[in-house]
Every structure is written in structure tokens, then in C-alpha cells.
Amino acid sequence: MKEKMQWPWRRRKVVVVVLRKLLTCAICVIALMGLLSVRVHVFPSSKVSDLTDPYKLPTVTQQHELNYQKLSAEKKWTQELTPPHLSKEQAPPHLSKAPLSSHKLNGANGSLDFEKLWKQPSNRDFVPCVQPGSNYTAPDESRGYLLVHTNGGLNQMRAGICDMVAVARIINATLVVPELDKRSFWQDTSNFSDVFDEDHFINALANDVKVIKKLPKDLSSATKVVMHFRSWSGLEYYRDEIASLWEEFQVIRAAKSDSRLANNHLPPDIQKVRCRACYEALRFSPKIEAMGKLLVDRMRAYGPFIALHLRYEKDMLAFSGCTHGLSDVEAEELRTIRENTAYWKIKDINATEQRSRGYCPLTPTEVGIFLTGLGYPSNTPIYIAAGEIYGGDTHMADLRSRYPILMSKEKLTSVEELEPFTNHASQMAALDYIVSVESDVFIPSYSGNMARAVEGHRRFLGHRKTISPDRRGLLMEGRKVSNRISEIHKKLQGSPRRRRGPVSGTKGMDRFRSEEAFYVNPLPDCLCKRVSENVNASTASMR
Predict the structure, then answer these.
(1) Which of 221, 268, 500, 540 has a C-alpha 20 to 30 A away from that of 354?
(2) How many helices (H) and strands (E) does the chain have?
(3) pTM for the whole thing?
């Protein structure tokens, strides 16, 4: 009887033990799943492949990964097909991630305020002042016609056009709408009206220079004098030597337009004409302006963004002879291109010497190192303002691993939207120019024509943040550079300063060549210090 009474009790005891074991296993499974979920990174990986570069950054990215893990609980990527302010019709089908807002990153070395990365330099109350002086008059009766054949890429042509407006004013000529370069490396067939707003250009300059669309028919067969204007020439050259040609000719043709006018020591009103031409009259055609605005809006959907002028296209590398990081096959291809391009005068180039002097662009890998050194996290949206990158994914892989949100006009638009511009290098460059000027931060990997033009325009519009890499300085720092990138570039972010003059000791043309170009920095000629809120609009006009 006693054994019969104990049996139910033993059975219940066994059941309890089994239940406890099952419960313990369940708790362990749940805990394990929780631990695994913590290990999942919300932000994309920033692992960097092994680099052979002298200023490799081995640890900064790892620190950022720790920072991002802390952020994962605060803000996650939102999955939606279109940016918040764009309709599904406006957004390209491949835009699949919504914008990221700014964060405050707390790292092991203290607080890194995200907002500081986007903070604009103080303009120190410098504002545009391009209105003519009180003695400035409308153009006198024209003495003849100035034809202009521009040369180079978009931004070289832009600067040349603005200089020729000033030259036309000096020699009292009627300016025929300039002819764009169709024979350069890019073989672009675009006409002036395809790239620029022709009617606006003519009307905006009415008080400075008479501009017409075509040479009058009765002068089409007239004898023209073709002139290669002397580089960096001053007022006396044009007023005395060139203007004297009106005594024999009705039409003067400028064979080239680039760097034909001095940067400095010109009358204030002539300098202001250049700025009015560049920043007011020479705006892009309506279709380019509209597409440019659309690109800016779509980048804005990702929050504050960097426009990176990644000058790493085939033509630039071939012209400069820069082959660092390229294979032997790629270097030979570039050498062949340079050898076969007749109007490139220098053929034999020492790539190592070019790089040591700071004459080469940063490679995409070096750009990633540079951005990380400045403190920009891997979720930073970046617009690539460039043509086709030489080597494609092969040379972009490391930069993309650090900064996955790499956008471009091709990625932000559908094929149909971009099709009208695709086969026209100048029009595609114009789209990049607009986004670069409007970006929160502009960083050029090389100080070429576009970099200089965009920097000057951003200075004119209020000294927007522009970080210009000290390429030579970075190389000289070597392996120590990882901790010094931010320090080296504290004063290279677009703050107001006067345009630099020639390098001490240089003579002749080298002296002019060493000067900072007028359109890189229009201060002091076209930017004035605002004294008070009641300052007369003719002295300093706000834009």
C-alpha cells in the first residue's frame, strides 16, 4: 500500500525535473539569439583591404565601427522606395534607402560632434559686390566684332568666355556668342545654347558689352585677323596693341580663350565685369539647370552630403602621366594615349616625380583614407562628380568599402532622365558643377579647372565649405599622416582670404603661372566687407 502511494509522487517529481530542463534550454536559446542579434551591424561594413600606400590608416575605421554599434539602437536605416519628399514617379527605381540624419558620435577619445563636420566657415561679413562704380557707362559705339573660339573642357571654356567679355569691354568690341571647343579630347558637339542660357547671357551683359548671336551676313566674307592673344595680358596690351587692329580689320578672331587676361592689376570695373559674367550672366541652359536641381534634391534626401570631385578619369591620368596604383598594362595604355594626342605637348613624364611634387590626383583609395582622417563616418552620403573612373570597380572597391553611399548622376537618375545629356561631356560636367556648388562640403581630389571654378563660385556665394587636400603635404607626412589629416587641413576649408599673388622669386610667364587664378578666389575684387545693415546696395549687394 505504501509503495502504491509513493508512485504518483515520484511521477510528479520526474515531470517537474523535465519541465525545468526544458525551461532552462529555452532560456539559453533566447539568450543566445539575443547575443547574436547584438553582433549584427546596422551600418555597412567599413573594413579596408591592405594598402601599400605610405599613409595608410589601419585603425581609424575600426574605431568608427565601435561608434556605429552604439548608434544602432538610436537610428536605423529606414527601408522605403523613394526619398521622403519625392514621388514614386520622380525617384529612380534603384533608390532603395532613405536618407540618414545627422548624429552625435561618442567615441573612446571623447565627443565627436557630427555637426562640426558640416559646419560652414565664417564668411567674416564678406558679401558679393559686383555692381559697377559711379563713373561706369554703357558700352560705347562698337569698333568691330570679336569672334572667340574657346578651348578645353567646360570650366576652362567658362573662364575663357568670362575673360573675353572683359576683353570685348576693353577694346570696345561687339562680342559674338563664343564657339565652344568641339575638337578637344571629349569630342563634344554641343553649341553654346546647348550648355548655357544664351538669351540670358546676352541680356545680362547689355550694360557691359553688346553681344550678338551671329556675325552679320555682310561681314561673313570680310577679312578677319586671327590672333593668339598673349597669356595673362594686362589692360595696356589690349587697349593699345589689340585695339589698334580696328584700323585695318572689322573682325578679330581669338584663336584661344584660356588664360588670356591677367589675374591682377586690372581696373576695378573690369574685374567686376568678369564676376558679373561668371556668376550672373553665364548660367546653364534651362534643361541643365532643371536636371541639376533634381540631382541636388535627390542628394538632399540623404541629408548633408559631400560632393567629391574624383578626378581619376582616363584623359586626366594620361595627360598628367600619373600612374601610382595602376598596373603596368594600365600605365602603358595611358602612355600610348598621351603619345597619340597631338596637342598634348609633353610626352615623356616621370610618374614618381609628378607624384612627389603633388601634381597627381589622390587615388580613390587615398580619398577614402583622407575622408576617414577628417572624421567623416561611413554613412556619409557622397556624390561623385566625375566622368567614368579609370579602371571602374577595380579602383573604386576600397573607397566603396569605406563609404557605401556613393552616388552619381547615373545612380540618381533613370536612363531616360539622363539620356539627353549622356553623349555630351560638357553638359554632363555642367550637372556635376551644379551639384558641387550646392553641396554641403566640396572636396576635390585634384586642383584642376573644375576644382578651381567650383571653389571660386562657392567663395562668391558665402564661402561654403571647401576642403582642398594638401597632396604634397600628405605624402611628406608618410605613415604619421593618419593622426594629422584633420590638423593639416584646419585652415584649408574655404575661409575668406585675399587671392594669392605670384610665388617669390619667379619671373616672366612663370610668375603669372604661379599666381592664384582670378576665378579661384574673387576676393578682394568682387567680395567686400559688409560694414552695417544699412550699407548702400551699390557698395555691397546681398545675393
Answers:
(1) 500
(2) 21, 13
(3) 0.78
